[in-house]
């Protein structure tokens, strides 16, 4: 068993941003605050309806590896930095994972959720 408990305490949080610069700024802030162990980023093409209009936008997808016990603080930090009125912030639990990798995540994030 890992330092944080069962695999279900780990998760991946998905966030889209409007630019690479915004994605990097959010990723760096989360890692510096020890709210995330790692953030992967890649460009995506998004189609969605916003305020009655169909949009086709180039965005950046963040894949944030973390302990879900930190989700409230992580969400607050993302909201404070994000340019979208309603940003995508979706947490997906890790059902199973390589124990050494899960232990590494635990070693990179705060031992307990911030107040």
Automatic annotation (TrEMBL):
Gene3D superfamilies: 3.30.70.120
Domain of life: Bacteria
A single GO molecular function term of this UniProt record: copper ion binding
GO biological process: response to metal ion
UniProt cross-references to InterPro entries, sorted A to Z: Ion_tolerance_CutA, N-reg_PII-like_a/b, N-reg_PII/ATP_PRibTrfase_C
Family: Belongs to the CutA family.
Stated name of the protein: Cation tolerance protein CutA
Organism: Neosynechococcus sphagnicola sy1
């Amino acid at each position: 068993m890992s330092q944080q408990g069962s695999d279900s305490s780990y998760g991946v949080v998905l966030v889209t941003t409007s630019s690479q610069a915004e994605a990097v700024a959010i990723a760096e802030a989360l890692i510096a605050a020890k709210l995330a162990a790692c953030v992967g980023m890649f460009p995506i093409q998004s189609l969605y309806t916003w305020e009655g209009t169909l949009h086709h936008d180039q965005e950046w997808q963040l894949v944030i590896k973390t302990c879900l016990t930190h989700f409230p603080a992580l969400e607050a930090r993302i909201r404070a930095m994000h340019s979208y009125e309603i940003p995508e912030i979706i947490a997906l639990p890790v059902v199973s994972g390589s124990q050494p990798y899960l232990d590494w995540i635990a070693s990179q994030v705060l031992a307990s959720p911030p107040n």
